[in-house]
Amino acid sequence: MLAGEWDEVGARRGEGEAFAALRRVLAEDDLVFLNLETTVEAGDGHIPKEPRVIGSIGIIERSLAALDVGLVNLANNHAFDGYLAGFEAVRAALDGAGVPWFGAGRDAKEAGRPCVLERDGVRLGWLGYVAPDTRPSHVAGPAAFGANPLVAARAFADVERLRRTVDHVVVSLHWGVEFCHLPSPEQVTIARGLVDRGASLVIGHHAHVVQGVERYRDGVIAYGLGNITTTDFAIGGRLAIRQTPRTRSSLLLRVTLDRTAVRDFTLVPLRADGPRVVTDDAYAGRLVARASRLLGGKTSPARWKARRFYEDVVLRTLWKLDPRVIRSLRPRHVARVFQNLGGSLTGRGPA
Question: Domains of the chain (ranges plus CATH)?
Fold first, then answer.
């Protein structure tokens, strides 16, 4: 998310400094991948829903260059906050920088098209999906632009088909309940189902907090990486979403593979310290370890509902008890608390 407090970084062209520590960590990696959850306004304005993640082409280009990014996923719920014109401007910038992308497009065919890359003789196939309950503004259809929607049966078939032509399939999933460190039983079932059908890596994002990482059969599943960059958000000119150390923590998944197998993986905890990324952060490391311990227990529906109630309702409500946030509350926000409460009890998606 390269907006908000990152606008100041862009104004002084300080992306190199902001990402310096992370760039040193990535220096010897063969391929850097990320979920790009920022768009721009480019003539069509922006969607009415808030919060929006609207940045600038300059900060996107310089940030990707600072990290030497080699591939991005665009299947997320903010890819079309600037409508089609914003998406087209971002894709043009990516194409101009020679950065491949996948997961969204002018129609369902383009959005669902895999991206195939080769590094050191290893052929990698990438697929990206956004879960409908993350409420993307635009979902791709036969004649409609948008992000590639997650439908489990279709994703399973996509993986099986792609696996026949590549050494490894990597699936990028924008999904999960916001602020909840434990994936739902349905997420676990889908992620493991993707591995059962041939995926080597399943990489999740959207929850704004880290979720656990597991080795399952021949694959690795990272249910939620968190946000490497983030910002407070204002709605109607008033602070509405205040980031905390928990939501400013994330993780870098580093994977070593050859043509036949995933050989190893390591986790590097990260923290967004204002407009600067800190590596090997101790607090983030504790969150990553705790999330994986939570995942190690049996993720029953009852256990997940209890965890979601605590993290998505209790902690989320307490987090809003900041005088600056309280001043921005409206009746619809109070209604959303009760919607999330109901969802935590029934297992429905987030409001």
Answer: 6-346 (3.60.21.10)
